[in-house]
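Researcher: Please predict.
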Amino acid sequence: MPIHDQGYRRFGGARARHGAAWLVIAGTAIRSMLARRKFAALLLLAWAPFLIRAIQVYATTNWPQLASFAPTATTFRDFLEQQNMFVLFVAIYAGAGLIANDRRANALQLYLSRPLTRMEYVAGKAAVLMVFLLLVTWLPALLLLVVQIVLAGSFDFARRNLFLFPAITVYSFLQVSVATLTMLALSSLSKSSRFVAVMYAGIILFTSAIQGMFWLMTRSSLTSLVSPTASLSQVGDVIFRTPPRYEVPWLLSLAMVVLMLAASALVLHRRVRGVEVVT
């Protein structure tokens, strides 16, 4: 049997861009989620508050007798806070299995055995959740502001509230970043997406319940530091230039939010690795 020459030959394929592998992970997962009808219905339902607010803007701009219900800067702050419920549902539905399913199928080792860094893997998973969460927070809030300008027929409201554009962006990305990193950190701790969903819901809902209970017992605003949602709301009040709802210094609330982000990043750094380390 003849032995053919197996010498060097130039690679004839296309060379992938370095550092772009996370886009493949994100794109594949986003398309997979959008193909699920229940999730698509959840995203549509999350836009219902936007439609209600848009009707409010239309009514107040066309009937002067309803001017007292006209939107203010606080309207946009309240809108984003109302979206917290949909942030919870979307984060659980789209994020609980992002890393947990890979750990259950032992796919994490396969991912990281390729020319893919841990940072790219986490970035790809985080991009999935951030896209969907921004779709129900940042995008409708900005569109609501555009609707107000268009229906009013002038830029008077926008000129008086120029800070709304950066405020909506900063708060939305902070809100989404906290949800994304917390969910990914929890997802990296378990192989069960259901257990991850329960843990995430517990952190959000249980801490809020504990805060309410401690407040009834002590009547102290320091209890807001127990709940990540309350700390984030306190920071949001400052971003939107509204009076803070708690007497706690807002920098302390911001420190609690940053601490939660740092803790989540640390968990991801320790848990996302190609080889399981037994200690």
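Model: The chain has 14 helices and no strands.
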